[in-house]
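Q: Fold this one first, please.
A: Sequence and structure below.
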Amino acid sequence: MILSIKEREFSKSDLGMLLLAIHCLAVLGFFLIGSGAIWLRASGPAKFRIFSVPSGSMIPNFNPGDLIIGAMYSWQNPKPRRGDVVFYPRRGQPHSLVYVSRMVGLPGDRVQVISGRLHINGVAVPREQVGVYPTLDELGRPTSAPRYAESLPEGSGRFVIEVKGNKGSFDKTRAFRVPKGEVFVMGDNRDNSSDSRDSSLGTVPISHILGHPVVIVGPTASAGSGPLRARWQPTLAPLVRTG
């Protein structure tokens, strides 16, 4: 399974999508200026890049075929915010291979998955099922998975899905202690994500984080074609702060 996201080069057939992306950035700029918002953790102006999503490791929040507009900058703050979605390269791989995951564990945290439930510092992260989500299994066949509203500590809530219930490869892990200066990342598609639960991949150094998604632009999730949509990525709030 391809897990990295790819920087997208636009063709003429993508003109409508490109115009929509530019519109989204213009609206974002208006929002930032009008609200008096400031960039967090940014050393200098952010550079925007556009990526395509080839896999489903972040379903239901990022879908295959989505285009992500990302703000790329050097990560300087030693206190990242739990729940942020971030871009990063993996250890020992070229920085041209960019991955996207959600930070669930911060330096010093003890992270473990027990029977499919995320535990942080010995406490199960609260979650509530909110229906089902149409997706694909490992063989590409249509299926559905329970969708949960998960509330991370500090009030950061996100949707996650579990295709295999509590029988996935990483639904029972040892307790991981997050090292100083690093974060523990997981995909929102908990049973179809290769992330920090895999000891061969491990945690992500904060210094390796490249930036944040800001806006998602792309085709409908169900068919990969049809009406375009643009939506604010749920991590917009951690990216900016007013006042």
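Q: Good. Now the second chain.
A: Here it is, same layout.
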Amino acid sequence: MGPTVAERCFAEKFVAPHWLPGGQAFWYRRQISDDKYRFIYVEIQSKNIRPAFDHEALAVALAEHVQKQIKIDPEALPFSWIELEDSHVRFRFGEQIWHFGSGKGLSKCSGTFTQGNLTLMRRQEPSADTAASRPVTVTFINNTRSRLFLNDVNHKGSVKPHTSISQGKTLFEKTYSGVSWRLEDAVSRQLRGVYRVPDKVHDTVIVDEVDVDEYLGKEGENPIGALLGKGDVAPAQEHQDDGGFVQLSEEDINTTPQISVRDGKLWLRDEQGIESQLIEANSSEESHCSDEILYLCPNKAFAVAWCFQQ
């Protein structure tokens, strides 16, 4: 069954910011229609919103490099993640990293390319025996435009449904080290990654809209998540109350900036616990914000929220 009208509307309005260094700008993938996307660049101070690069020119250049007989749709480019710097864009296609710049065309390049979540793996592994495992609280953050299925993989490798995570929502799951979880798109059933719980008290998994085959490929077999953070000191413990809000200790409240929605307006609580209302870029008396989607930039200077007219 395909997406509902409400799910389709949500997908086309959805914004998951990928912040650039400095926290003054970000990029995201805007869904035009089913399986059609464009990469959008947003500069906050200047309110500049534009395509992140020339999609048509890149599609033509990439088709010429790969196979002249094929045509690549500029709204269905064969990659889902980019790195931006000035007027240049880098992306991974196949086993190669590519560089595309205005006036400089397309070329192959070397170096590292940061994409996806290294805590996720591609191969599904059975869960370890939990008899000697330690309890772990995992924060799953759904940074995609679709609901996610969180499936439990038992010690025999069998998969069974566990729960789901709505778009833009956070789930706090109490589990054990060595347990494997399979994350799938609830609409397309596309694999978003397999997560192996590490040996630490708390871990965070951010699930982005990245094709796991694109950045892991057939070589993505190592359970990277199980190897990270062993022996690390756990951060402050968190839990959700009945209303779905994150509860922190009094000390954490004084040191951790938070954004929230109250009476339809955005509020920021800074490191000192002082609250102030955030000014919306296109505010009006009829504008209301939803707590469905809230993103605070790394330097805490800006936030991205979903606002609407009632």
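Q: Anything worth noting on the second one?
A: Residues 248-309 form one domain.
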